[in-house]
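RETRY 2/3 - previous attempt timed out on the joint model. Re-submitting the same 478-residue input unchanged.
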Amino acid sequence: MPDRFEITHKDVFGRIGKLDTPHGPIETPALLPVVNPNTALVAPKEMRQFGAAALITNAYIIYRNPRLKEAALSEGIHELLGFDGPIMTDSGSFQLATYGKIEIGSAEIVAFQRDIGSDIGTPIDIPTPPDVPFERALRELNVTLERIWEAAAFCGAEMLLAAPIQGSTHLDLREQHARLLSTLNADVYPIGAVVPLMESYRYADLSSVIMACKAGLALNKPVHLFGAGHPMMFALAVALGCDLFDSAAYALYARAGRYMTASGTYQLNDLAYLPCSCPACAGGDPKLTERELAEHNLWVSFAEINTIKQAIIDGQLWELVERRCGYPALLQALRTIQKNCAPFEAIEPLKWSFMYTSTESAERPDVARFLIKLTNIELTGRVLITTNRTQTRDMEHEFDTTLLMKAPFGPYPQELAETYPIGQSEVPDPDYASIKSAVRNLIALIRSKNVDATFAYDSTWNHDDLEKLSSYATLLPL
Ligand code: GUN
Ligand code: ZN
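RETRY 2/3 succeeded.
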């Protein structure tokens, strides 16, 4: 089978790609609005104007309603919704998680999805909630696996297969399940049962779950984050390697009077001014109707997808993630990623620029990766590391090597001054976080070599961690 997913640009784990479906390609990252044929606040056929290339709907809701079922079977799902682009269908797993039980077997609902002409079909996976005992997560995972294998028989050229990854918050199970499913060569890999994590703002745990799934998955497959619909976390999720999102949030938030932005949510009633000029907000009157609020939520969601795509092309995705993670729970997620960034170091493509946008930048994968570059340089004998060369030029002849210092990266030889990241970085004067990172890299370098080091520094480099450094180097205040 030819690969249906083609990747054209990459940054961090994020990528721009194209997924071929029977009703045309979906450019990723993509947001698929959830449409409910019973209660559409914004009609499916209107979704294109906001930027939606594809939709997702729930096959179980259609199946359960005799009128909709009959219409879907006779006209097809595209005709029923009035949308001729790709349509993905979900299976009723969410209803299973909410009500504990549904009246249909997985094979039956997958066959129904095929019969109504869905482009991407989903079996009834079991969305095991977070924090359950390992045994339950494993038991339910095995049921999900069986159903995915069973569904594969119904999928092919006419309907692509979505193979959901479950495993609750057991990261080893998530990774194993992803690895097993990779051998099936499904078309889309949704990460399931993350809605409860997002609802309770557990973005750090969400990030760990995504990273565990990605560790087990073939990297050339599109990944869907099931139920993720808030634009403030799209950049983070894309940077971790998610390609598809679905959103019922635009409508659910509108119903609750909640106004989305890429950096958080306002209660519409609290807004005296509208921080947006989309067509729904353009008049400036903050008294939006529920329908206008849903439209605004769609506009900002799709604008954020475009912002992310441009950031990928510019090699600036990590900078965008940092700007989006001002909210405490997201900041926690960013730190979790930075602590576990080893896999990024192997695959993050070379970047052309590094902008220090906040103290979080001090912990970027590029800073850790610079240390690897450093430990490759040869160093012996007496080494001077200086923060201010004009003040130390007179003493350089006493040393075998002189290294310069730049926060947050650390020491570097003159030969690296023009190369990435030293040469291509925009960094303000050193601050507490950036000095900390630089000193950490300096200590790591000294420890990896057998050298007699002297650190000559001016007063802008005064820092608590110099005491740690004094165990490895002679300190020389300038
Ligand atoms: N929608 C939100 N979460 C899930 C999930 O875990 N599985 C399926 N099939 N749909 C979902
Ligand atoms: Zn708006």
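The chain has a mean pLDDT of 94. Closing ticket.
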